[in-house]
Design brief:
Helices cover 52% and strands 20% of the residues. With 598 residues, the protein is α+β, with helices and mostly antiparallel strands. The strands form four sheets. A five-stranded antiparallel sheet has the order 2-1-5-4-3, sandwiched between helices. It has a five-stranded antiparallel sheet with strand order 7-6-10-9-8. Strands 12-14-15-17-16 form a five-stranded mixed sheet. Strand 16 and strand 17 (574-582) form a beta hairpin. The longest helix is centred in the first third of the chain and has 69 residues, at 8-76.
């Protein structure tokens, strides 16, 4: 991603296209949402009108059959003159029913079956398609025997599983004058007569339309949706509006219900949210296709705009890289007439001024380095000449006293050590010696100090091999040991111990020699320790501990600010000082290396 967005042009292009994509997709989503909501509203509105119209048509059509059958029965006086005679036999009942059917039926009649139940429990059946006195549905026969003449006033419509293509109308026949029940009649009518008005809707996949009787039985229609009729009939009217979806156990549906005027029919229409969205998917896909095309066109346009905007910036970047590598050439014409052109002209002026400034600074830096080098040389010579003569005077006085009291051997040994040490401190032949020679100077110095302090001072050395290849400034470590004696162990009561160890270590990713000088003296207080630790090449020297400060400055002169003294001290317990010095090859002058590289 970082490589992809590595230039301003790419960032402008990516940001612009991203914002366009977000805006267009958001607009598309809003339009799709609005379209979906409007489609649901329109579907709800038209489905409401649809179920109301179907309920009205169904009420009118079934009412015609109810009244027509009743009128036929009463005009023929079927029950009064032919049925319900005490001496009636099945043969006569069938003959009378056949006469009634043949008189009233035509070839275009939708009536399929007639079942007649008289007051004596005798059922007479007739089937139009087979022209036999036997109905197609045993279930109707069982219903007549179970119900008898207890059918409700008016008509009851029902269907049976054994005759799925027929809808049955059952009604009780009442004597017109006596108002006494005379029996019941069931007429089977072809379902197609009623369902043809809404079968086209269902075949087109525009949802499911069902018609239930007032008893809750499904009369017309079918559905593949896993929804129970009882669940649909139990939905209160106030729960569904033109723009709402109802959540059933098996999902969300657009649902409408309307009862016929006489209350016998409940027309139910519903379509699942998934099916509804499928009908709208083409329109929604078209919306997003237009959005995608607009995104592509916008991306191409923004690519050209971004290239035009960043062309001048690319020239600036190219010349900035040249400046970084020492090139000071200005940018030539043409210059754009915009902000980038103004930046280009300002850049040319800046390059000219910067070039002059760099040359001036380089010259001043060279002069300053020469002056600093001369100052460092003078400071080094001054530090090299400083050797505290305090211990020499004490040694000479002690030698004088011992000469009177003791033999010549010990005085001779001390004289030799003192001569070597004075020769090393006053010699100007070489400023660089080996670590092995420096340790020898320390041993001579400590031998003289042991002579001065007597048995109160013990010195221990722990040395590694190879010290003859390490080259350091002469008498670099002697002031540290002197500081340990003068400020640490000289004034304390009891035995004093100086421990010196030398080993090779890696320090700042470079091979170094590590010198650790420890004593069990008085140590330092926190204030003095912090002053020494916070000392820098540019800070003023704090009072006291001049030997340690001089060593620090000599190390900075020779090796740079990365090296110095690491001081650890606790008042009353002693001091530990560690010095890390880089290992230089024989013949190399560290001071010359610092001067050339610095």
């Amino acid at each position: 991603m970082k490589k992809l967005l590595g230039t301003i042009g790419q960032k402008i292009l990516f940001t612009s296209v991203l914002l366009l994509v977000i805006a267009i997709l958001t607009t598309g989503a809003i339009l799709s949402r609005l379209y979906t909501s409007e489609s649901i509203f329109q579907a709800g509105y038209y489905s409401t009108s649809l179920v109301e119209q179907i309920a009205a048509n169904l009420n009118t059509r079934t009412k015609e059959y109810e009244d027509g059958i009743l009128s036929m029965v009463q005009d023929w006086r079927l029950f009064e003159d032919y049925f319900n005679n005490s001496d009636s036999l099945p043969y006569y009942n069938r003959r009378n029913l056949a006469s009634f059917v043949n008189t009233r039926n035509t070839t275009q009649s939708p009536i399929e079956e007639i079942y007649v139940l008289d007051r004596y429990g005798q059922i007479t059946e007739f089937c139009y398609s087979t022209q036999r006195f036997e109905g197609k549905s045993p279930a109707v026969r069982e219903k007549l025997l179970e119900t008898g003449d207890d059918f409700p006033w008016g008509c009851e419509w029902f269907v049976t599983e054994d005759s799925p293509d027929i809808v049955y109308m059952a009604r009780r026949i009442i004597h017109a004058r006596t108002l006494q029940p005379q029996g019941s009649i069931v007429v089977g009518i072809q379902k197609q007569i009623f369902s043809s008005q809404f079968s086209t809707l269902q075949e087109g996949g525009y949802g499911s339309l069902l018609v239930a009787s007032e008893q809750g039985q499904l009369i017309f229609g079918s559905t593949e949706e896993p929804v129970e009729i009882a669940e649909l009939l139990s939905v209160p009217r106030e729960q569904y509006t033109e723009s709402s979806l109802l959540k059933f156990q098996n999902g969300k549906f657009l649902f409408r219900r309307h009862n016929s005027r006489d209350g016998k029919w409940a027309v139910l229409y519903f379509i699942s949210e998934h099916a509804l969205s499928q009908k709208m998917s083409q329109t929604i896909a078209l919306i997003f296709l237009v959005c995608a095309a607009f995104i592509v066109i916008s991306g191409v346009c923004m690519s050209g705009i971004a290239h035009n905007l960043t062309q001048g910036i690319q020239r600036l970047i190219k010349h900035l890289k040249l400046v970084r590598h020492g090139g000071w050439e200005p940018i030539g014409p043409p210059y754009p007439n915009d902000e980038v052109g103004e930046i280009t002209l300002a850049y040319n002026e800046m390059v000219r001024d910067l070039h002059m400034l760099v040359e001036e600074v380089s010259e001043q830096k060279m002069l300053a380095e020469r002056a600093q080098f001369r100052a460092l040389q003078a400071e080094f010579k001054e530090l090299q000449a400083m050797l505290n003569p305090h211990f020499i005077y004490n040694a000479m006085e002690a030698m004088n006293a011992r000469a009177k009291l003791a033999g010549q051997q010990e005085i001779s040994r001390i004289c030799i050590a003192l001569a070597k040490l004075m020769r090393a401190s006053l010699s100007r032949k070489s400023n660089i010696i080996t670590m092995e020679e420096e340790i020898s100077h320390l041993q001579n110095y400590l031998e003289i100090q042991q002579f001065i302090m007597g048995d109160r001072l013990d010195a221990f050395f722990e040395l590694c091999d190879g010290l003859d290849r390490v080259r350091i400034p002469a008498l670099l470590l002697q002031p540290i040991v002197e500081n340990s004696i003068v400020h640490g162990v000289e004034g304390q009561e009891g035995d004093a111990v100086i421990f010196i160890s030398v080993s090779f270590e890696t320090y700042h990713d470079q091979e170094c020699v590590a010198v650790r000088i420890s004593d069990n003296g008085a140590g330092m207080d926190a204030e003095t320790l912090n002053q020494l630790r916070s000392l820098t090449p540019k800070s003023e020297d704090p009072p006291g501990h001049f030997g340690l400060i001089s060593v620090m400055r000599r190390i900075w002169i020779y090796y740079g600010e990365a090296y110095g003294l690491q001081i650890e001290s606790t008042q009353g317990q002693g001091t530990n000082i560690t010095v890390h010095l880089p290992v230089h090859k024989e013949g190399e002058d560290p001071f010359e290396i610092r001067r050339i590289c610095g």
